[in-house]
Amino acid sequence: MYSYSHKVILLILLVLSPFTTKAIAQTLWTLDDVIGMAKGQSIASKQAETERETNYWKWRTYQSNYKPQLSLYGNLPDYNRSFTQVYQPDGSIQFQPVINNNALASLSLSQGIAATGASIFVNSQLQRFDDFNNNVTRYNSSPVLIGFSQPLFAYNTLRWDKKIEPIKYLESRQAYIESIETIAINTTGLFFDLLLAQTNLQLAELNRENNENIYKIAQERYNVGKSSTNDLLQLKMELLKAQKALIAARQNEETYSRNLKSYIGYRSNEHIVLVIPDSIPDMYIDATVALREALENRKDALAFRRRILEAESEIAKARGEVGFKTNINATLGYSKAASTISDAYKSPQNLTTVLVEFNLPIMNWGRARSRLETSRANKKLIEYTVEQDRNDFERDIYTQVNLLNMLKEQLKLTKEAEDIAQQRYQIAKDRYILGNLSITDLSLALQEKDLSKQDYITSLRNFWTAHYTIRNLTLYDFLKNEKITVPASNERALRNGSL
């Protein structure tokens, strides 16, 4: 395989055409070059990066649920000017004018406890009431309030999120790597589309030139009576077909070139020439190793665990929402009311509140049991589905590994056949010029040469596609014998918010 660095070389090449010869600036690209560009600047890579960033900030949001929350809130001001009804001793109502302001400021520090689902808080608040009708001001202070709320027999969101959300985040990280490797697979397909088109263009140019030369020789032989009119006309038809094939090949080459440039995000109109990636790595992949790496690295393996946990979470939620529930709330602290702020903080009095709430369903016509049994049945279904998905996952790994190893051996045979076909065509052409071979046999040799070249390019495509597919399925680089991970620089940039 060629090195990853770009090898941009401006060359002046002679491009054959039926009428003119001109020089064009070109760029030589290897498969690694093209994949590197696609991973770095394609729309698909930017989409994967954006999705990764979104999942990262979702993870940060989840983490914040387990850290202390400090907040300042209040009503400044809460002004009221209206009439209020006042009941009189005789039962009548008098409407009295009211002009007051009831302001409140509170500083609160709270913390959730994942183990029990409880929450504790420390609070400090100050309230001021102004009665403008009577010119009275009062203060109510609570310097320190410590409280907690503990639900019993209820669904513990914090506890279950702590089991599920870390797996989700790991899934998102591996999903990003898989997205980048998928870009490599797609790019490989587009690379070989263009490579085959360029190969066909080269063959078409060469065939046109060869047919022109052979036709000229046939004309000379016809002029001296050594070739028939039918043979000359057949060669003329072959030349016309070669010229038409050249026009079609140029159009295809231009189309596939635009497709590749569009996908990898390359905006230049510069003509590119692809280098055939015929340096095949000498490696043999063991299916057991590939499966082990896949189970360690792929998001699918993480998803198997996460889906079971989510099913268990639904069972716990069904139990908590339909059964007996209790909530204990308690507050301890100090409080004082006074006409001035300083007096409101002098010798505060103890403050204690205890509240026990409960909810016991007595008759729900089997709704509680139905919801619980539904969640249990759904868990069984998910377990069976996960088991089938795991079997399919393992089968795909074994199939792809065997395919890659087979394609590597097949590629050697295809290359040998391509070399033989090239030699046979050269021999056939020489024999025809000497008059020892028919036009039909020469045409067959030409077709065999072209087909063997195309077959070789197709075999290369199948091999490299399988190579990048096994990378995607295992997230393991078997050339370097290391796991495929997110670069550390990208992780730091993501944490710093620069992506």
Automatic annotation (TrEMBL):
The keyword Kinase does not apply. Keywords: Cell outer membrane, Coiled coil, Membrane, Signal, Transmembrane, Transmembrane beta strand, Transport. It comes from the Bacteria. This is TolC family protein. InterPro entries: OMP_efflux, TolC-like. It comes from Xanthocytophaga agilis. The lineage of its organism: Bacteria, Pseudomonadati, Bacteroidota, Cytophagia, Cytophagales. The keyword Membrane applies. Residues 1-25 form the signal peptide. It is found in: Cell outer membrane. Belongs to the outer membrane factor (OMF) (TC 1.B.17) family. It holds the Pfam family OEP. PANTHER family: OUTER MEMBRANE PROTEIN TOLC (PTHR30026:SF20). GO terms for molecular function: efflux transmembrane transporter activity; porin activity. Residues 201-252, 292-321 form a coiled coil. Its main location: membrane. One of its GO terms (cellular component) is cell outer membrane.
